[in-house]
Amino acid sequence: MTDAYERMMQANQANWDARTPVHLASRFYGVDEEPDPSRWFAPWEWDDLGELAGRDVLHLQCHLGTETIAFAQRGARAVGLDFSAASVEAATGIAARAGVDVTYVRANVYDAVEALGGRRFDVVYTGKGALCYLPDLDRWAGTVAELLRPGGHVYLAEFHPLLNALGPKPAPGEGPELLLRHDYLGGSGPVHRDATHTYTDGPAVEGATDSYEWMHGLDEVINALVGAGLSIRRLRESAELPWPRWPHMTRTASGWWQLPEPRIPLLYGLLACR
């Protein structure tokens, strides 16, 4: 990885440290309420993941560990990894209050093999806003392959690149229609953001407001995993999100949200096996 990308990832780390107290105070995460980690999962994710009791499950880029707790509640030996020290500290406290046994490790995802002492897992889970913070998917996929036992699975539940390409709000003088404002495909370099507010409610971010994101098309994700020696077993595209990104989204029977029209993919699930 280039020195420039290293600096950008360090900026992202500082940004997520600064985001953590904002997210802890938000209604979006609701960490002070009775925890309901299952609300962050689509039903088809559990179908694809299968039985988790007694299995070693690693959640990469886990942030506050909201999904990680759900794995422990299903009987898995759950480990969460994140590069933000503030997030790891917060996640440890949230899991303790929920009464579940989860181990959290602070490390950059690219350093996960060393940080976890060579431990191998039955399932590596990641997604919902994770891959966009990684500049090198080939290196990521190679790391995931090293973390898996033979026969182990990686499961990626990630925001669809089409979602990331759509503008979240209209420019001045435009109507409410969603427009393609950003690249669908990767390769054009990082997108720099300097924002005092994140995707949640809550107070403004203080201090480190700079962040960098990289676009990754589905072909890039799939080819990275295949190049690391993994076999693709399933790909799903879903029109639903776990929160209403746009005001005109409507609630579905699952409790998630979708656009009234047209039906376009907003989330995808990808299962691959070593």
From TrEMBL:
GO terms for biological process: methylation. The keyword rRNA-binding does not apply. Residues 58-154 form the Methyltransferase type domain. SUPFAM superfamilies: S-adenosyl-L-methionine-dependent methyltransferases (SSF53335). It comes from the Bacteria. GO terms for molecular function: methyltransferase activity. It holds the Pfam family Methyltransf_12. Keywords: Methyltransferase, Transferase. This is Class I SAM-dependent methyltransferase. The lineage of its organism: Bacteria, Bacillati, Actinomycetota, Actinomycetes, Kitasatosporales.
